[in-house]
Design goal:
18-stranded antiparallel barrel; 3-stranded antiparallel β-sheet
C-alpha cells in the first residue's frame, strides 16, 4: 500500500491593461486530494493485481461541476468566484486504476484501467490526479538493448474526470480545456465518441549513450502519427553534454472527425552540466505552415483579420490555428486556408506533451498552429539533490509570412524534498512552487490575453 496527500493553490491572473485584458476576471482554486494505491502479487508467480483511487475536494464549497455554471460559483464578473477548473475546482471521486498484470524479466502484460505513459499519452500528472486509460499494454525485451511495445486503449479518463469515456480532449468539452475546436459542429454540443487508440513502439537503449524510440499511434477517426525521438549523451566527458532530436508526421485518418490534419513538427536540443550543480539546455522547434487554396462553402467567410467565420450549424473540415492566421481571401474569389498545426487528442490543453518548448502556461500544441522558436533552461540542483530550481525563457512565433503573433514566456520552478532522496519511490514531504508569465502581441487581430500570469503552490506528502 502506498499513497499521497496533495494540496494545490492555483491562481491565474487574466486581467491586465489594454485590449484583451481589460475586464477579465482572475481565477483561483484550492484543492485537497488523497490518492491510494494497492497491489498484490500471487506468491512467487509473475501475476499481480493493482488498483488506484483518488478523492479530491475544493476549499471553496463549490464541490459540484454543475455549481460552477451559476452564482455564486459561476464564471461571472467580480466579486463572484471564478474557479480554475483545470485543477479542477470541484470534487473528484475516481477509481482510475484496476488491472491485472503479468511481469517477468522480459515480458510485461497489463490489462484493465491503468496509467499509460508514452510521449503523446502521458500521465499528465501535474494536478490532483493523473490521466488513465482502459485497455491492454504489452512490453517485450527482445534483448538487453532492444524492446517492443503494443497497446490498445479503448477509453480515457482525463485529469478532471472520475469516469472513463469513449472520447478525447479534442472531441469533448472537459472542464478547464477548450475542448472540441470551434469550427467543428457537434449536434447537441456534447461530444464525438471515438474508439480509442492503438500504439506500437520499437526502442533502443544502448550502453554507449545512445537511446532512440520510434512510436506509432492511431488515434481512431482522428489521426495517424509517427514520432521519433533520439538522444546521445557523451558520458565519458565530465560535463555529460548531450544532443537530441525528435520529429513527427501526422495525418488525418478514418472518419477524420476533426478535419484535415497535416503536421510535421521537428526539434533539436543540446545541453550539459556547466558545474556540478548547474545545467544548461538549449532547444529549438518548428512546425512548418501548410496551405490549401479552395473555394469556401456558402456561408463561410474569411475576414480582413485572416480569421474564418463558419456558417452556424456546419463544420469546416480542417484543424485550424487558434489565435493565429487561419485564411487569406484571394482576389479571384478563392481562399487560401492556413493550417499545419498538430492535433494531440490526449494532451491537448494539458501542457504535458513532449515538445521542449511546452511551458507552464501553454504548449504550442494547444494552439493547433504552425510555429517556430527557441527556449533556454538553466537548472540548479543542491549537492544532496533535495532542492531543485530551474528557470526558462521561450520565444515563439505563430503564423505565416503575412502576419503572426509572437509569444514570450518566463517560467520559474522550485522543488524541495524534505526527506533525503533514496533509490525507489520518494516518501516524505514535497514542497513546490511554480510561476509563469506570458506576454503576447497582436491580440487585437487574433485574440487572446496580452499578459497572463500563473502561480501554482503545491504541498505533497508521499507515504
Amino acid at each position: 500500500m502506498r499513497g499521497f496527500f496533495r494540496t494545490y493553490d492555483f491562481t491565474r491572473q487574466n486581467a491586465s491593461t489594454g485590449i484583451g485584458g481589460a475586464g477579465q476576471v482572475n481565477q483561483q482554486s484550492i484543492e485537497l486530494g488523497l490518492g491510494l494505491h494497492a497491489d498484490y502479487r500471487f506468491g512467487n508467480t509473475p501475476f499481480s493485481v493493482g488498483a488506484s483511487y483518488l478523492f479530491a475536494m475544493p476549499a471553496n464549497g463549490c464541490a459540484s461541476p454543475v455549481s460552477h455554471l451559476s452564482p455564486p460559483c459561476g464564471k461571472l464578473k467580480a466579486p463572484a468566484l471564478n474557479p480554475d477548473d483545470s485543477l479542477p475546482g470541484f470534487e473528484l471521486n475516481a477509481l482510475y486504476e484496476a488491472y491485472v498484470q503479468y511481469k517477468d524479466p522480459r515480458l510485461s502484460v497489463k490489462l484493465g484501467d491503468q496509467v499509460f505513459n508514452t510521449p503523446w499519452t502521458s500521465s499528465s500528472d501535474t494536478r490532483i490526479k493523473p490521466t488513465a486509460y482502459q485497455g491492454a499494454d504489452i512490453v517485450y525485451a527482445v534483448s538487453p538493448v532492444w524492446s517492443v511495445e503494443l497497446a490498445d486503449m479503448v477509453r480515457f479518463q482525463g485529469r478532471v474526470n472520475s469516469t472513463f469515456e469513449k472520447n478525447t480532449l479534442m472531441t469533448s468539452f472537459p472542464a478547464g480545456t477548450a475542448g472540441t475546436p470551434a469550427n467543428t459542429f457537434v449536434p447537441g454540443g456534447i461530444s464525438i465518441p471515438t474508439a480509442g487508440l492503438q500504439y506500437a513502439r520499437i526502442g533502443y537503449a544502448g550502453t554507449r549513450g545512445l537511446t532512440s524510440s520510434l512510436h506509432l499511434y492511431r488515434f481512431d477517426d482522428i489521426a495517424n502519427l509517427a514520432w521519433l525521438d533520439t538522444k546521445y549523451t557523451f558520458f565519458r566527458q565530465r560535463t555529460k553534454p548531450f544532443v537530441a532530436f525528435h520529429g513527427g508526421y501526422e495525418r488525418e485518418t478514418g472518419a477524420a472527425v476533426l478535419g484535415k490534419i497535416f503536421s510535421t513538427p521537428l526539434g533539436v536540443q543540446a545541453g550539459g552540466s556547466v558545474t556540478r550543480n548547474i545545467g544548461i539546455t538549449l532547444s529549438y522547434e518548428r512546425i512548418p505552415p501548410r496551405a490549401d487554396t479552395i473555394r469556401l462553402p456558402a456561408g463561410d467567410v474569411c475576414n480582413a483579420n485572416q480569421q474564418l467565420t463558419v456558417k452556424k450549424g456546419t463544420s469546416f473540415p480542417y484543424v485550424l490555428p487558434v489565435n493565429a492566421p487561419q485564411c487569406i481571401a484571394n482576389r479571384n474569389g478563392t481562399t487560401t486556408v492556413q493550417y499545419g498545426g498538430f492535433a494531440s487528442p490526449y494532451t491537448d490543453a494539458y501542457g504535458t506533451d513532449p515538445l521542449w518548448l511546452t511551458s507552464l502556461t501553454q504548449s504550442p500544441i494547444d494552439r493547433h498552429a504552425p510555429f517556430s522558436g527557441p527556449k533556454i533552461q538553466a537548472t540548479w540542483t543542491s549537492n544532496d539533490k533535495r532542492l531543485v530550481v530551474y528557470v526558462t525563457q521561450s520565444y515563439l512565433d505563430y503564423g505565416n509570412g503575412f502576419r503572426s503573433q509572437q509569444l514570450a514566456e518566463v517560467n520559474a520552478d522550485a522543488q524541495y524534498f524534505a526527506a533525503p532522496i533514496r533509490p525507489g519511490p520518494y516518501k516524505g514531504l514535497l514542497l513546490r512552487y511554480r510561476y509563469g508569465s506570458r506576454q503576447v502581441t497582436n491580440v487585437i487581430t487574433y485574440g487572446g490575453l496580452p499578459q497572463f500570469r500563473y502561480n501554482r503552490a503545491q504541498m505533497e506528502y508521499d507515504f
